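Here we describe the complex-level prediction in full. Unlike the single-chain runs in Section 2.1, the two entities below were treated as one system.
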Amino acid sequence: MLVNSSPSINTRRTLQIQDVGMVFPTKRGPFVALRDINLEVQRGEFVTLIGHSGCGKSTLLNLVAGLTTPSSGIMLLQERELTGPGPDRGVVFQNHSLLPWLSCLDNVLLAVERVFSEKEGKAQLRERALAALDLVGMSHAVAKRPQEISGGMKQRVGIARALAMEPKMLLMDEPFGALDALTRARLQDELMRIVATTGATVMMVTHDVDEAVLLSDRIVMMTNGPAATIGEVLRVDLPRPRARVALAENRDYVQYRKEVIDFLYTRHSHVEKAA
Amino acid sequence: MDAAVVTGKKTFIRVVEVWVPGNDRSTLEFSAGLYGSAERFGAISRQMCFGLGEGLPGQAWLDGRPIVLKQFAGANFRRTQAAHAEGLTCGIALPVFAGDFLTAVLVIFCGDDEAHAGAIELWSNDPAASKDMTLDDGYYGSTADAFEFISRRTAFRQGHGLPGLAWESRLPVFQEDLGKGERFLRADSAIKVGINRGFVLPCATRGASTYVMAFLSAMATPIVRRFETWLPDADGERLTRAGGFCEVSGTVPAGDDRDFIERGQGTLGRAAFSGVPMVGESAASEPGLVGRAASAAGLDAVVAVPVLHDGRLRAVVAWYF
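The structure predicted for the assembly as a whole is:
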């Protein structure tokens, strides 16, 4: 009997990371930052990477962003190998990275032009940029420059810039880490609304356990470095939309939160202990 | 002695039986069993045999993987009335494959009365589908559902957590106090429901998927009264004790190299020789260290389970009752 051995294509699979490792050359010899990283992210999924400082979660995000090249392994975005940065991945950093001499609109427009200028006219490009700013609630500040708006607003513009490119994946490196608690909470709620509206696939790095549980479909917990890897993956089956106030008393939410805290502070406290 | 050590308590596992292929390998026949107080169930079982796909042992044989059967009625189970009469509510079938060929099916029965705290979980990984080991099925007795809830949503990577460690090493893995260690990744939930010891057994299945069975034991009802892991030497001729835990005397240390069991000697040696789980009804009369330890701890019977990988013996696990 003949068996069809052709691999089936999973149309829901957006990102595949296969056996990825990252080694940095140092004066003292090679430093293994990441090893044996294997992960798949499905279309529309919100995945957070959590772990202690130095566990390589930002390194992993940078690899997916194409900002660095893995020492080993392969990464595929919708079945195509990642070989460098590209507009198919929108990146939002903790530092908003907006150009200070451009208005909010022009900052977003810059990204939009890069992706769509060959196919669309100026008016359409402007419309796209305005729509993205509207999506993040920044229509009122399109003409303002970054120094004229708050940290939270800058981050909204950063998200608008990333989303305006209609990326296959949104990559966020502690996007709310530098914000005060109230602004962070508001932006988390905004992000959930935006993701629900756009159906975006998101990979986000965070240190914040509550943020991870609130936002994620899956929480990828990383072991301590050096030679960090994925230790455990927790699926968060909380219904959406998620309301933070109601969740605070939700038994399942509390359970998820405890599991992540236990992983980080009991089993993988910052100084790695032998398993 | 560990303050948590208990004596003479009811074990989570109530019945153990071993089914082996008959001479023409068309049916599974009764080989051995430990029935404790479920003697009527034992009397019925001894008369039975199962074809491929028949009943719990036959289904495990057909599927080539372990099965956790939490409800007998309406399932492919032929002894429902007798099991219920003895208070048995869950059956677990562990087929033992040496490569493609079945050597035996080990069947375990548990109950779910109030005192039946603990859990048995089946974890699996399909390498074609994922790098994660996820919960296939589980039996939680009267254990609170908080633990089951988190188990069903947790995925382990190779080398992480007790299931991941057993997967990586292909050897049994034990942790004496789940609350204190870093290896057990669901410690917080486990402590809340009284689970304090974990023992994970890699399963010798057919096919590419990996299965490990986790036995999580509560202080009130230990999974078994004592268990030990024995490892073969390089030639596979001798077994030496690697360690274990006894509910009577606490941590069981590694045995002296000179205190070995030869292949074919006693219940453990016969399991190592044949690749078939064996039952010794009088643990105290077993040869060497097994008999001495059983006498000292007042243990009644021993079950020896061979741990195979790719048809080779990796270890023998001894369960004492």
